[in-house]
Amino acid sequence: MVELKTELSIDAMREAGRIVAQALTAAREAAAVGVSLLDLDKVAHAVLREAGASSPFLGYRPHFAPTPFPAVICASVNDAIVHGIPDGYRLRDGDLVSIDCGATLDGWVGDSAISFTVGTPRPEDVRLIETAERALAAGISAAVVGNRIGDIAHAIGTVCRSAKYGIPEGFGGHGVGRSMHEDPAVPNEGRPGRGMPLRPGMVIAIEPMLIAGGGDGYHQAPDGWTLRTNDGSRAAHAEHTVAITEDGPRILTAL
Ligand code: MG
Ligand code: MG
């Protein structure tokens, strides 16, 4: 069931989203060669704590997970697509990092992700990240009243496929509200004009995930969380929580 949010609720979600943006910005600024993924988690956690927010990631345990998630960010490096667990790995020159973060404030959740390179970037990584951001922007542009979920999915998928990137099937966006994962599912590929009509008050996370090698194959790492590309190529992830309003899409997880 899709819960429509009032304008006041969306304003409250904007505050949760702003904290996510601040945590992601802080993590990105802290990321450098030699810095560990656990360090980035600490930086993000401090931002949440100072803002009086809690983490919807910490202790989260969906059906597929063998253990509760132990951190406030997902940190996915190089061939890791999403759901990487921050550990003692120290960033190296040229790494491609995707950070996903959530915050809960006054009972409302924000969910957002960014990808960036550390040190000297490889041109192909820059292109991959730019395409992920372009796919996100296309998905957001399609998040308007009168469209359907399939229009968002189609917009994302078209950008990814035109650039010859793969799309991991079965993972994508979702409704956001008092919990991190609500209805509806927002796939990263689909047919225009299909699926649920978009209505004012719907709040969704839009989150393209791209595989550089062009194949769609992925597998779960032995930790039971991290998704990695099957071909070993790199992946990028970009995400915003977006409210659908009469005035157009409102990004809730911008700074
Ligand atoms: Mg996320
Ligand atoms: Mg999400």
Characterize this entry briefly.
Helices cover 28% and strands 24% of the residues. With 255 residues, it is an alpha+beta fold.
Percentage of residues in helical conformation:
25-40%
CATH C-level class: Alpha Beta
Integer-rounded radius of gyration = 17 Å
**How many domain regions?**
1
> What class, by secondary structure content?
alpha+beta
Largest sheet: 5 strands, antiparallel
Second CATH tier, the architecture: Alpha-Beta Complex
Uncertain segments are none
The average pLDDT is 98
Order of helices and strands: HHEEEEHHEEEEEEEEE
> What's the β-strand tally?
13
The percent range for strand residues is 15-25%
CATH topology call: Creatine Amidinohydrolase
Distance between the ends: 30 Å
Q: What would you call the shape?
A: globular
Number of separate helices: 4
Structure, described:
- The protein is α+β, with helices and mostly antiparallel strands and 255 residues long.
- It has one domain (7-251): Creatine Amidinohydrolase, CATH 3.90.230.
- It has helices at 7-30, 37-50, 123-141, 149-162; strands at 73-77, 80-82, 96-105, 108-117, 173-175, 182-186, 203-206, 209-211, 218-220, 227-229, 235-237, 240-245, 248-251.
- The protein has a five-stranded antiparallel sheet with strand order 6-5-7-12-13. It has a three-stranded antiparallel sheet with strand order 1-3-4. Strands 2-10-9 form a three-stranded antiparallel sheet, with no helix packed on it.
- Helix 1 (7-30) runs antiparallel to helix 2.
- The protein starts with 6 loop residues before the first helix and ends with a strand.
- One magnesium ion is lined by residues 100, 111, 113, 239.
